[in-house]
Amino acid sequence: MKWFDNTGLTIVIIGAINWLLIGIFRFDLVAFLFGDLSWLSRIVYTVVGLFGLYLISLYGRINSMSEA
Predict the structure, then answer these.
(1) What residue ranges do the domains of the chain occupy?
(2) 3-class DSSP state for residue 28?
(3) What is the pTM of this model?
(4) DSSP character at residue 37
(5) What are the CA-CA distances from residue 33 to residues 25, 30, 41, 59, 61 (Å)?
(6) Is 62 helix (H, G, I), strand (E, B) or coil?
(7) What letters, b where the CB count within 10 A reaches 16 and e where it falls short, cover 27-43?
(8) Is 21 exposed, middle or buried, given 0-12, 13-18 or 19+ CB atoms closer than 10 A?
(9) d(CA 33, CA 68)
(10) CA geometry: angle at 18 spanning 8 and 22, to 5°?
(11) 10 Å Cβ neighbour count for 11?
């Protein structure tokens, strides 16, 4: 399961970098690479969002590890 956490964290970090580029430079890297709301870019956005939701569980796991 650790590989899934690491993969998720990497994907969410890439998504965060994309949001940073959008916020500072108005440059959407995903749209640039895969097209503006093409089916492939929508898949990328969906995967980033799902991993972001999954990583919410990381808070609970960190808390339980610190109590042990």
Answers:
(1) 2-67
(2) coil
(3) 0.84
(4) T
(5) 16, 5, 8, 32, 35
(6) helix
(7) ebbbbeebeeeeeebee
(8) middle
(9) 44
(10) 150
(11) 19
Among candidate residues 36, 40, 32, 24, the one with its CA nearest the CA of residue 48: 40
Residues 21-64: tens digit of each pLDDT = 999 999 999 999 999 989 999 999 999 999 999 999 888 887 78
Two structure tokens written together for 1: 């399961």
Structure tokens at 13: 């970090």
Residue count (the chain): 68
Q: Do residues 11 and 51 lie in contact, with contact meaning Cβ atoms separated by under 8 Å? A: yes
Q: Please give the structure tokens belonging to residue 32.
A: 């640039």
**What is d(CA 41, CA 33) in angstroms, rounded to the nearest whole number?**
8
